[in-house]
Hints:
This protein is α/β, with parallel strands linked by helices. Helix content is 36%, strand content 27%. It contains ten helices and ten strands. The strands form two sheets. A six-stranded mixed beta sheet has the order 6-7-8-3-9-10, sandwiched between helices. A four-stranded antiparallel beta sheet has the order 2-1-4-5, covered by helices on one side. β7, α7 and β8 form a beta-alpha-beta unit. α7 runs parallel beside α8. It is globular and about 45 Å long. The mean pLDDT is 90.
Amino acid sequence: MATLLQASGLRAGYGAGDVLQGVDLAIERGEIVAVLGRNGVGKSTLMKALIGILPARSGRILHKGDEVTGLASDRRARLGIGYVPQGREIFPHLTVLDNLRLGRLINVAAGALALDEVYGYFPFLKERARQRGGTLSGGQQEMLAIALALVGRPDLLLLDEPSDGVQPSIVQEIGDFLVKLVAQQPIGILIVEQNIDLIQTVAQRAYVMDKGRLTATLDRDAIADVATLSHHLAL
């Protein structure tokens, strides 16, 4: 497998303090990797640093072996790193179709994902194509946000808390979709998540974060154990 993303010694933060304290991680093509930990340990900060919203203060980030540490977030997106932040951040006043059309502009060089392919992933988007994004349910908005990232044909997808504010049946649907996606497409996924059911559905391995550091790596057997996950999530 080709390494899609590698971070080494990554430090980033806000103001005078570093939240990330020298993070080392790698994501391979064809796998889903979770980042676990209590609230406030730096998980979302990690995602922002990887996509470039938050500049790295030291360390390196490589995408498919190429240095991206100093690149802006829009440049990283054009290179193939998709990002769905916590809270979704779709364009609420635009229609579903116009949201997807904007997403197709992210990575023009890779060739935009056909809308019919997106509708194949999420059929309800075709039915709601003329509906404003902000009028969709929370779960539907999350699916639209994922679709918005995918139409740019990323090879790496960063998902920050996709279950947040989403009803359980839709969370399961999102999990099943992500598993199917990595089976069908040459893509890797890094997911920050607190929902045990979703983690157990999708993750092949997981990093545990505490106080801005990755303190452990869990294999599939450890992920399958609810007590282990609950301990690391401090539930």
